[in-house]
């Protein structure tokens, strides 16, 4: 009994059950318990790095060497990792389509565009920058 007269908290926790002794179990039940214990210890599947992981790292190193803030580096890393997972970083049109269709907030779109522009500049990818108001400027 606990100090307030209640049983131990663990016994009242959801999913808690007393484990029967080995004598009480048949072989089939023992096998089922072993399988249940093994399945409950599931591991997380390793995440794919993506095709352009080394180019992303080079971009981040260049940004750090140029004196970018730590928060900027974290933002670049996060945005480029997501873009790498969902679009082909070597094809600016797929990246542009992903940003336009999947990101709703204009400020977030802008931060993704800044990160990708820096990636393109670092890795020598030619890309036409979209205008801020959506209209092409004639020269």
Could you give the distance between the termini? 84 Å
Tally of DSSP β-strands: 0
Described by the principal axes of the CA atoms, the overall outline is elongated
Q: Please outline the major beta sheet.
A: none
Helix content: 55-70%
Q: Low-confidence stretches at least 5 residues in length (pLDDT < 50)?
A: 134-139
Average of the residue pLDDT scores? 77
Structural class: mainly alpha
What is the radius of gyration? 26 Å
Strand content: under 5%
The count of helical stretches stands at 6
Order of helices and strands: HHHHHH
What layout of secondary structure does this protein have?
Layout: H1 9-12, H2 27-40, H3 53-65, H4 70-86, H5 92-102, H6 106-123
């Amino acid at each position: 009994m606990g100090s307030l007269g209640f049983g131990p908290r663990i016994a009242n926790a959801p999913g808690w059950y007393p484990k029967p002794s080995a004598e009480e179990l048949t072989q089939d039940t023992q096998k089922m318990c072993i399988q249940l214990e093994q399945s409950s210890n599931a591991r997380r599947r390793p995440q794919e790095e993506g095709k352009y992981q080394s180019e992303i790292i080079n971009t981040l190193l260049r940004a750090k060497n140029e004196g970018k803030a730590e928060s900027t580096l974290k933002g670049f890393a996060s945005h480029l990792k997501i873009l790498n997972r969902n679009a082909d970083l070597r094809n600016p049109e797929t990246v542009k389509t992903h940003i336009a269709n999947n990101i709703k907030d204009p400020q977030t779109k802008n931060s993704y565009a800044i990160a990708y522009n820096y990636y393109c500049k670092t890795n020598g990818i030619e890309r036409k920058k979209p205008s801020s108001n959506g209209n092409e400027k004639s020269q």
